[in-house]
């Protein structure tokens, strides 16, 4: 559907996008993740037509989008601020784009009624934005975008203004709406859990490039670089080298895994995959418990290994006292090889 190839964008001497390649499928819910300055928002603005790339191509079903102005693209963007007109009613906010597009009154009314029903705002047509809750404002902004029947909807931190209790429910409703409309959604978010829960695929951006792309479960379970492993889920990363099929880690003070690819330059371990050993189980590594934090459902432990590295470990029960010697173990499948 949408294909970006070799996109480049600089602001003065600062590169924002560097040879970025991306393909979005029809009807897909896609999430862009990355830290500040990774290029997420710049990419969204280039797709919408608000920024022109310095190099590269952008096509939609084979059509070159770069010469097409923002208002003529079959793409809508929902801004983080929602950008509602305070002096207009809900219905007039939703109707704004239809009026500019010259849609006749009868069809306009029909489409407004249908989209307000879709987002659950029936009966609120006459209210002004200041009379709405945060979640209702978000739905108005979403309705204003969907009423234009875009083939692609861009969402810039769509739930950032909502409180934590509302975000999860609203996110699931957003995904359900995406399925009903059949439009492709591209969502920029800082919330990793949000992206993992909602998206069909995610792309992790680093310094203007796509570091890794794939289904959420795949990227989380098999990161390919140190950056992706640390950024997505804060995995433990241990440095070392491959020797005779075994990964030797001096900073861990032990051999970490075997039968790993020869190109492995480091390994990652998820905190939830590491367990404290009991008296009947030989540990893979040993260390000293430095700190522990209660998190409600579990404890987060910080354990210093004899080689100097620290491991984050998720433990379901109260831990031993600080300073205790602890043995750690994990399954072979939990060792994730990293290649950069």
Average pLDDT, all residues: 92
Shape: elongated
Round the Cα radius of gyration to an integer and report it. Answer: 24 Å
Query: Biggest β-sheet: count, sense, barrel?
Result: 6 strands, mixed
Number of strands: 21
Alpha-carbon distance between the two ends = 30 Å
Oligomeric composition of the shown chains: single chain
Alpha-beta classification: alpha+beta
The low-confidence parts are none
What are the secondary-structure elements, in order, as H or E?
Answer: EEEHEEEHHHEHEHEEHHEEEEEEEEEEE
Classify the beta-strand content into a percent band.
Answer: 25-35%
Lateral arrangement of strands in the main beta sheet:
6-7-8-3-9-10
Helical amount = 10-25%
Tally the helices. 8
Folded structure, characterized:
The protein is an alpha+beta fold. It is 25% helix and 33% strand. The chain has helices at residues 40-48, 90-100, 105-118, 134-146, 164-181, 192-198, 216-221, 226-231; strands spanning 2-11, 14-24, 29-33, 55-60, 63-64, 75-78, 152-156, 184-188, 201-206, 209-214, 236-239, 241-243, 246-249, 254-258, 266-269, 275-276, 285-294, 299-305, 310-315, 325-329, 336-338. A six-stranded mixed sheet has the order 6-7-8-3-9-10, with helices on both faces. It has a five-stranded antiparallel sheet with strand order 16-20-17-18-19, with no helix packed on it. A four-stranded antiparallel sheet has the order 2-1-4-5, covered by helices on one side. Strand 9 and strand 10 (209-214) form a beta hairpin. It is elongated. The model has no long low-confidence stretch (mean pLDDT 92).
